[in-house]
Amino acid sequence: MSREREKGMSLIVKTITRLTVGLILLYGIYILSHGHISPGGGFAGGVIIALSFVHLMLAYGKETALKKLPKTVMSLFESSGAILFLGIALLGFTGGYFFLNFLPKGQPFRLFSAGIIPFCNIAISLKVGAGLFAIFVALVLLKYEKNKKD
Amino acid sequence: MIELYILLGIMIVGAIIAIEIKDLLSSIVAVGAVGLVLSITFLILKAPDVAITQLVVEILALIILIRATLKKDLPFSTSGRWYFNTLITISFVALFFIVGVKCFKDLPAFGYPIMNVAATYLKDGLAQTGATNIVTSVILDYRVFDTLGEATVLFTAVIGVLAIVRSIGRKKQNQKIEEEDE
Description:
heterodimer, A: mainly alpha, 6 helices, disordered N terminus, B: mainly alpha, 74% helix, extended
């Protein structure tokens, strides 16, 4: 009641957040994994995933969100996204040139089609989501320390 | 076409309100309204990919703006050399207007681009890349070097922000500041 209530927002906001944050995360994963079939893609999906964690952090306070996604895991995700994207590009050299679409194209309108494009989407979404959430956390921390100094 | 001009007018009015209003929260709300109308404009122009990206990035930017700026007292400098400032503003607006009119005369008509590469993408995109979303097939296959550059820019930006505002470097000066929030 006392310490738990003080962190974050009111009980109504917390309950609604508990119900919706999973759906937002799932929608982000849907947007990024269907980027080669329907509108969307890695960037938008990554931003929606970052928004679900921002939602959690706004409602529950910093500790709960950073327990789900610590800073080390965040930087690991961002770096591994960048490495994955470059690695996919470098794997194209097995067939000839940088960013060659070396996987089989598959059937249109299937989830597993279009060669390397879904994997590029996953890499970009990892990078964008982790990076934008890291920027948000950094800006909130900066604001807090400035307030503390005053 | 008329609804496009209505949305354009709403965006211009919202931008002017966002600049001129004194309350900071109202200004941020006006910026959000401009972003929402811009997203609807992208939908009307049949660009749903850009509309989705615009909407979600606008939400994130608004949250960061509210969290980062709302509690601070930003000074407004409304007094002072308003005559000089207004003169400079009007002259620059006139200059940009004249140059813009001259430039837009040379542009091709809407829907008739100079380069013919887009027609090739539309015709061969599905067969060559296997992606049914043509936008994704362009940004992740034909123009993937642009995407690589954009990802590099974002990576560098995140590293720069984290390097500037990280809290480890400040703790050495005053040790008693601890990392806790709300």
